[in-house]
Amino acid sequence: MAGWEQHVRKVIPYVPGEQPRQEGMIKLNTNENPYPPAPGVARALREMDPEQFRLYPDPAASLLVDSLARRYGLASNQIFVGVGSDDVLAMAFLTFFNGKKPILFPDITYSFYDVWANLYRIPYQCQPLDEAFCIRPEDYERENGGIVLANPNAPTGVAAGLKTLQGILEQNRDVIVIIDEAYIDFGGDSAVSLIPSYDNLLVVQTFSKSRSMAGMRIGYAMGQPRLIQYLNDVKYSFNSYTMSQASLRLGAEAVAEEAYFLDTTKKIINTRERVKKELTGLGFVFPDSKGNFIFASHPQISAQELFEALKREKIYVRYFPKPRIQDYLRITVGTDSQMDILLSFLKDYTSIDRP
Amino acid sequence: MAGWEQHVRKVIPYVPGEQPRQEGMIKLNTNENPYPPAPGVARALREMDPEQFRLYPDPAASLLVDSLARRYGLASNQIFVGVGSDDVLAMAFLTFFNGKKPILFPDITYSFYDVWANLYRIPYQCQPLDEAFCIRPEDYERENGGIVLANPNAPTGVAAGLKTLQGILEQNRDVIVIIDEAYIDFGGDSAVSLIPSYDNLLVVQTFSKSRSMAGMRIGYAMGQPRLIQYLNDVKYSFNSYTMSQASLRLGAEAVAEEAYFLDTTKKIINTRERVKKELTGLGFVFPDSKGNFIFASHPQISAQELFEALKREKIYVRYFPKPRIQDYLRITVGTDSQMDILLSFLKDYTSIDRP
């Protein structure tokens, strides 16, 4: 070991999900949207002036912030933007979880929460979900340094109701409660409506799922102005210019077209509900997902076997070899025709006689 | 104060430089490049497929990493990329300055170093530059937890020679030495040539200056593979997908056109040298800048007065009201015609009879 290695921050390296790029593959493994971004995005891309790239972008990201403020009926000083919701959440962890008491989140949830806690040396305690993968609100009544809940949860798709969240917020007025709503637009009830009542609530959303913009890296947080101010103070201490000119311009366009947004999210919801019925018919079980994915298990066939069989067909889904969830596959909801190919394969595969 | 505020990480908010957008202004305040990015960038922008934005970008950023590796004659596992050099440097601070001993950097240097140290609770000690704004190598021989040097330095433009840097590297084999080369392409000697000899050297560069891409937020670090691996481990723990599809594609194009790069940097160097002569003629003094800016002082007129007089003419330069440098203006080197307007104003202004 070189001498300088003693000063290095050692982390358990996070391994991002596979990003295969195979001809003819069906990519249902990272919860991307099967539909393209709103048509205005293509238009704005064509109109962008590359000569302007020589200049720094607006550090306040006003074009994007104002467009989000209009969309959510909030003031511009209630919106914080970052390089995907991972950047926004990591900044929020760094900013708001600076105490000595452990922060709380479920044992089964978005896999980055413990990674950020480890990175920033934030103490944490995982609270077990119940057998149906639901949070138990009483678990969040103990003393803590903050709470983070994905709603709908990942990778299960289970959504908590606003009443449940409100109860948790009431019990935790002295810490920040982050609701990570990456998948909220596919059927859950957003906590944005609770922002006026709770100065300790931060709601985080993303352009990567419902807005078909994973490739442009845009996420945002919403809360009362004081929270957003604290986040901006830390962000400006880290990097004044996180959002490129392209992300600002194209992101603003993606928010502007509400009809397109409603149409594509509706299509995905419809496909999901149809696929649920068909999967049930094939013997699969799954919690009732409100996300753009289904977390499904088959009583007779192991998830790992199915994962590998699908991969041989160039159908990519996500498999987590972890306690409690190693019997499940997370299947992103694609287009109807993609799902038909998946279902047809699963129908054949599940009907094979097994000893 | 709300109860939750006790857990908030309080920072001294960094205030980014003004980004005025005025009709007819001459913007010489943030060291942007006056020339547009390489022609291939505009072409790649037109060819980009917005339908692909629905997909996550390549987390390994291979297109950009490989193009930088080719340009610098390094292997791809010797390159780390991030959202501007601020992102790269902040990640490097977080990764490599994790000890208890203070890190060292000059008292006059890039204003973000102490901000990141404060953000990440890294102890630091500033080492005073000498009267000519040069580093004193012996200051970097004391016990420390790491070293960061901007070369050429900001906001002075003073460059240290490779021999000096090599001496400091030799004396500090047990800590990481970061050389921040944001302005290296305007005439300094890059430490990239020292990478094979020093496993403790990290060289950081940016697309924001010599490559005219400030608006797209791209920075990079170069070093031996082990260093880059540690940086990537932390980066993947923070955010797997920091670089948008647009930054990857357009950044790769900006690196590809070497002739354009040489031509525009040469033009800026020529303009800088001419402006130096003319400023001397007007009575200004300045250290010999190797950056795309000149850090100039006038013995008879205060920098603040000049700053405000220029601003009234819509000529924006940078003024730092800080000890030791409050008599100086940092003037970005623009096009020849922009500089002529500046010089013509300064000629008139300095010739006014003063009591």
Question: What's the order of the H and E elements of chain A?
Answer: EHHEHEHEEHEEEHHHEHEEEH
Q: Which blocks of ≥5 consecutive residues of chain A have pLDDT under 50?
A: none
Evaluate the radius of gyration of chain A. Answer: 21 Å
The biggest beta sheet of chain A reads: 5 strands, mixed
**Greatest interface by residues involved:** A-B, 87 and 86 residues
What is the distance, rounded to the nearest whole angstrom, between the alpha carbons of the first and last residues of chain A? 53 Å
Structural class by helix and strand composition of chain A: alpha/beta
The proportion of residues forming helix of chain A, as a percent range, comes to 25-40%
The average pLDDT value of chain A, as a whole number, equals: 96
| Beta-strand percent range of chain A | 5-15%
Q: Kindly state the number of beta strands of chain A.
A: 12
Oligomer: homodimer
Can you list the strand order of the major beta sheet of chain A? 2-8-7-6-5
In DSSP terms, counting alpha (H) and pi (I) runs of 4 or more, how many helices of chain A?
Answer: 10
Shape of chain A: globular
Map the helices and strands.
2 copies of one chain form a homodimer.
Chain A: E1 26-27, H1 39-47, H2 62-72, E2 79-82, H3 84-96, E3 103-106, H4 113-119, E4 124-127, E5 147-150, H5 162-171, E6 177-180, E7 201-206, E8 219-222, H6 225-238, H7 245-256, H8 258-281, E9 293-296, H9 303-312, E10 315-316, E11 318-319, E12 329-332, H10 336-351
Parallel strand pairs in A: 1-10, 3-4, 5-6, 6-7
Antiparallel strand pairs in A: 2-8, 7-8, 9-12, 11-12
Helix pairs in contact in A: 1-7, 2-7, 3-6
